């Protein structure tokens, strides 16, 4: 079955999709021109066999790009030549050459995080057509093209011909079927294909007559560029749609220039303009760290955008995140771009103090010991190595600041994620760790003091670019904090607000420390037994599996959450809606979460929302309210109850169903 999947996957990979059922349809469609279908199939099989001879591991070829380049080469031979022993042998040799070039280019391109696209096909095609000038024995094999069936129609004919040309089937019926496949799986890709084609044609018509522009055999490059740039490698957003159309217009010049140059040697241009423009765009936006670059390509642009927005709205995106450097309740004395010292390149910093009855001190506040923050433990906000510290400076008496040693006693930690955290104004001789020590979140680093440029005892914390004292600061967010019994995730409190640090409930953490192949059984109200099994994919991602559907989850420090669902309507999907995240803390709180579009709506509403989402992210942003109590979490979608002793859920109650845990002793 796996080998069969490898045969069909290249067909759908050409269209940037993944569903094998579409691959089967495209495989069958290729036989409209039998020589294209036959030699394309031979090219794939030859490549798979050669990969096995070379002992190339299956995971290297299952993603498609090694195989679809060989497929394109085989179909290209089949487009020009009939099926004979000579052309079959030639296809086998060319497919092996394509595989070698694909493997070599991938090893080079991977250093720059670039895909090889169909560049190996374009290169091998040039080699073959140059060499074919000397292969006189091939002349008797030139194909007299007659498709098995065709259907001519006037509307959008040129667009469909260009779409069919992607598979060496320049016939309206082939293009129509391919377009319908794209439309079925992705409205965004279909929209981009049309937009790219007609943008390229109309822009081209500025420089030549419209008929020639409309009927150029290389217009399929416009389709591929628009889909790749606007929906695959860049996330589908309005801005990226514009970038895609600009890329298409640039490619018009490239197509014409290459056509003139290649025609001198009687060579077809094929996908060279698509590869050239798309690779340059990918390299540019990846190198500059573009926010809407698609770092995690899903099955469709719709799924990629939903995953990105889910990460952004639910988990703070790719922003730097740190934990609070204290326990208990503290108030914000100064936030980002504060009115006193948080200015210029040091504007991304927070100062914390402790207040009681509106004051930071007791009595008259004349002595350090009068200040509630003085001497309180300072905790590590990250996991990482201590790279610098100082703790020999005396704590200032109230009313005096040290203008020479602004930072006072400090500690700098290089986090496991690569950024640096500096905590300043610590108490003299209180730092409990040394340079080179590895610290974890929550470890005691020292005590809150009043050293350096500090008017009163407080904790100063900042994230910075480099590891030296006073480095330029970077924006960040706090993982979580509680304010007035409301739990906030990946956010920043405002000046004067009082917040409380969350405390890990280890018993809650143990309840969701699932182990591979654990089985959790539940009984429905109809006495049907439902099983959820803990599984792991080849990327190391864990998920709940009911035999058909997958619900991916992650356990991180004080939070357990579900982040992706793969499947149809099921109890697992309902669980995602009821409780998308579970704070593993020892306090009853109210919090909010954002459910992905494909979890909370379905059918035609989902299709419309997915298509409109690139134009307005507010279609995604609908916050649901959740209430955590001692052993349960309630939401508008239902309620879950935790077991007191066992891992997992004791009971799951939805709007129209109820699942109760079944234990072995109950059987």
UniProtKB/TrEMBL annotation:
GO CC annotations on file: plasma membrane
Domain M23ase beta-sheet core, first and last residues per copy: 375-467
Matching Pfam families: Peptidase_M23, UT
Major site of localization recorded for this protein: membrane
GO molecular function ontology, one term from the record: urea transmembrane transporter activity
Compartments (UniProt record): Cell membrane
Membrane topology value: Multi-pass membrane protein
Keywords, alphabetical: Cell membrane, Membrane, Transmembrane, Transmembrane helix
Entries under InterPro entries matching the protein: Ammonium/urea_transptr, Dup_hybrid_motif, M23ase_b-sheet_dom, Urea_transporter
Coiled-coil annotated spans: none
This protein's record includes keyword tRNA-binding: no
Keyword Transmembrane helix: yes
Domain of life: Bacteria
Family: Belongs to the urea transporter family.
Protein name per its UniProtKB record: M23ase beta-sheet core domain-containing protein
């Amino acid at each position: 079955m796996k080998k069969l999947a490898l045969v069909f996957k290249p067909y759908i990979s050409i269209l940037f999709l993944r569903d094998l059922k579409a691959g089967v349809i495209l495989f069958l469609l290729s036989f409209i021109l039998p020589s294209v279908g036959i030699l394309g199939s031979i090219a794939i099989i030859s490549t798979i066999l050669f990969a096995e001879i070379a002992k190339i591991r299956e995971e290297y070829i299952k993603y498609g790009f090694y195989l679809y380049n060989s497929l394109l080469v085989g179909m290209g031979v089949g487009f020009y030549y009939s099926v004979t022993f000579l052309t079959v042998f030639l296809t086998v040799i060319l497919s092996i050459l394509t595989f070698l070039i694909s493997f070599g280019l991938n090893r080079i391109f991977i250093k720059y995080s670039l895909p090889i696209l169909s560049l190996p096909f374009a290169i091998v095609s040039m080699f073959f057509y140059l060499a074919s000038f000397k292969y006189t024995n091939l002349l008797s094999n030139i194909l007299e093209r007659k498709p098995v069936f065709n259907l001519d129609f006037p509307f959008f004919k040129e667009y469909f011909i260009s779409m069919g040309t992607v598979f060496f089937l320049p016939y309206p019926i082939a293009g129509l079927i391919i377009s319908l496949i794209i439309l079925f799986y992705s409205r965004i890709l279909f929209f981009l294909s049309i937009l790219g084609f007609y943008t390229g044609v109309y822009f081209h018509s500025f420089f030549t007559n419209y008929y020639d522009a409309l009927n150029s055999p290389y217009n399929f490059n416009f389709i591929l560029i628009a889909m790749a740039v606007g929906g695959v490698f860049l996330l589908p957003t309005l801005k990226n749609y514009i970038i895609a159309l600009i890329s298409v217009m640039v490619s018009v010049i490239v197509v014409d220039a290459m056509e003139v140059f290649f025609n001198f040697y009687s060579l077809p241009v094929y996908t060279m303009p698509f590869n050239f423009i798309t690779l340059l765009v990918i390299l540019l936006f990846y190198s500059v760290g573009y926010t809407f670059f698609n770092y995690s390509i899903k099955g469709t642009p719709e799924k990629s955008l939903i995953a990105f927005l889910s990460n952004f709205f639910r988990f703070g995106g790719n922003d730097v995140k740190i934990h609070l450097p204290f326990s208990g309740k503290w108030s914000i004395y100064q936030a980002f771009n504060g009115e006193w010292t948080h200015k210029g390149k040091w504007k991304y910093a927070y100062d914390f103090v402790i207040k009681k009855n509106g004051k930071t001190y007791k009595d008259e506040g004349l002595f350090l010991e009068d200040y509630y923050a003085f001497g309180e433990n300072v905790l590590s906000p990250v996991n990482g190595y201590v790279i610098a510290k100082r703790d020999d400076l005396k704590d200032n008496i109230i009313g005096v600041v040290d203008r020479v040693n602004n930072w006072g006693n400090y500690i700098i930690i290089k986090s496991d994620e690569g950024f640096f955290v500096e905590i300043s104004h610590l108490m003299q001789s209180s730092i409990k760790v040394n340079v080179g020590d590895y610290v974890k979140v929550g470890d005691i680093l020292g005590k809150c003091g009043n050293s350096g440029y500090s008017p009163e005892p407080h904790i100063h914390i900042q994230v910075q670019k480099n590891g030296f004292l006073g480095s330029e600061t970077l924006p960040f967010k706090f993982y979580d904090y509680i304010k007035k019994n409301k739990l906030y995730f990946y956010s920043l409190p405002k000046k004067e607000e009082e917040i409380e640090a969350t405390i890990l409930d280890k018993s809650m953490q143990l309840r969701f420390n699932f182990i591979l192949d654990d089985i959790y059984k539940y009984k429905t109200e109809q006495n049907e037994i439902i099983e959820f099994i803990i599984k792991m994919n080849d990327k190391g991602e864990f998920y709940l599996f009911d035999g058909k559907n997958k619900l991916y989850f992650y356990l991180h420090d004080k939070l357990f959450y579900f982040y992706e669902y793969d499947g149809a309507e099921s109890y697992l999907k309902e669980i995602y809606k009821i409780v998308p995240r579970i704070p593993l803390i020892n306090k009853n709180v109210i919090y909010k979460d954002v459910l992905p579009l494909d979890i909370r709506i379905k059918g035609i509403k989902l299709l419309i929302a997915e298509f409109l989402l690139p134009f307005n992210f507010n279609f995604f942003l609908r916050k649901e309210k959740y209430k955590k109590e001692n052993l349960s979490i309630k939401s508008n979608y239902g309620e879950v109850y935790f077991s007191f002793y066992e891992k997992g859920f004791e009971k799951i109650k939805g709007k129209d169903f109820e699942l109760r845990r079944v234990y072995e002793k109950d059987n």
